[in-house]
Amino acid sequence: MKTVLFLKSALATLAVAPLLLSMPAQAQAPSPAVAAAVADKTRPEKDTQQDAIRRPAELIAFANIKPGDVVMDVWPGGGYWSRVFSTLVGPKGKVYAYVPAEITGFKSDPLALAKAIPAEPGHGNVEAISYPAAEQPQSDMFNKVDVVWTFENYHDLYDSFMKGADVNAFNQAVFKRLKPGGYYIIVDHAAVAGTGLKHTEDLHRIDLATVKAEVQKAGFVLDGESSVLAIPGDDHLLKVFDPAVRGKTDRFVLRFKKPSR
């Protein structure tokens, strides 16, 4: 009888194991350093007002960013993430605010915005850089970065204003810049499963499976997936700027790792 019960228990465990492995990782508790960086009183109000929908403490904890790290913030926009990363990595760390050359002509002048961050008190470890999205790194940038981060902008690599940028080459360049064991974090608006790249420009959404396949093709291993920004009720056929869903879109969070060998 004991043997039968043991076999039933073992079979039940084997049946559940694949489900557990496929479940997205949940939010993990931020370290004191991460919590302090997010709670920094010098952060602009325009940044802190977005904390409720961006969940910075949980996301940065998931990204495994720590003091002393070198981080590349892809498409930094107004500098929300660059500032938090700057405070977190501290004087021994470095933040590259990377603006793709293809968007430097925007009316908002993204490169000027990135260049203004290092002049702010406490953010002298930030450096604004710009080059074409598909450009491969020079020898001095190989294996230099601990974390490459892109928040709600991966889909934009496919927009017409990117002038046909080679996304596969972009991912390969990210791979080369990262240290062995480094992380590539992608957060983006979810599209209807199976739609691939169909809605990258009109709805500003991208299919989760497509992103996974593209990044893994560049040599990365999928290391984690978080549901901290998941919104089950989001209509994936609505544009992300639609008032009905703006700030409440279903977003996936992926952590890819560059193999150590």
TrEMBL record:
<keyword id="KW-0732">Signal</keyword>
<dbReference type="InterPro" id="IPR016980">
    <property type="entry name" value="S-AdoMet-dep_MeTrfase_Alr7345"/>
</dbReference>
<dbReference type="InterPro" id="IPR029063">
    <property type="entry name" value="SAM-dependent_MTases_sf"/>
</dbReference>
<dbReference type="GO" id="GO:0032259">
    <property type="term" value="P:methylation"/>
</dbReference>
<feature type="signal peptide">
    <location>
        <begin position="1"/>
        <end position="27"/>
    </location>
</feature>
<dbReference type="GO" id="GO:0008168">
    <property type="term" value="F:methyltransferase activity"/>
</dbReference>
<keyword id="KW-0808">Transferase</keyword>
<protein>
    <submittedName>
        <fullName>Predicted methyltransferase</fullName>
    </submittedName>
</protein>
<keyword id="KW-0489">Methyltransferase</keyword>
